[in-house]
Design a protein that fits this description.
The protein has ten helices and two strands, in the order αββααααααααα. The chain has a two-stranded antiparallel sheet with strand order 1-2. The termini are far apart.
Amino acid sequence: RRHTRCSRDWSSDVCSSDLESDGLIKVTPYRGAVVRQLHGEDVIEVYVLRSSLGVLAIRKLISDNLVDSVADELTRLEKLMHNPAVIKSQEKTIDADLAFQSAIIDAAGLERTKEQFAELTSEVRLFILTTKIQYPSHGEIGNSNAELLAAILSKDAQLAVSLWRKRMKQAVEEFLSLISDGKALSAKSPWIWDLL
């Protein structure tokens, strides 16, 4: 929190109104802020968008020959997953994984895509907190990121896109299994898997 001459209540109100306008919380008079209930459709919407933005970024990154200019940064972020401090901490694993995904998006140089993906990443963090999901094992994520990085560095767009979509689909499956309406929604709407 930056030091200002404003009261603490004012900054809390601003923060609450920002979170409310983003749809992340609901502010009720005399009760305060409450994290909104998570529904399966929320997860599907966020991950279909994340999947699509990732596909766009990967294709642009590879087709515009931008890979070589960002290879070192992507490699550094992927290797972070193998840091002993990250391996021991679910929170650090989540941060490293989401940073790696965001770096792929950022590397494509598409400003709107970057902004939208950042907003969707905030939603994913909310999903993680709301569901108390146990993030996939460190080894599974590390291997998945290593495969994705290798596909990007070898400029194999088809494989990179396939691996990206696979990660998004796995995340949706995990979240839907933890949400009250998730399993029913998945069974009722099998077409959602075609969008990921």
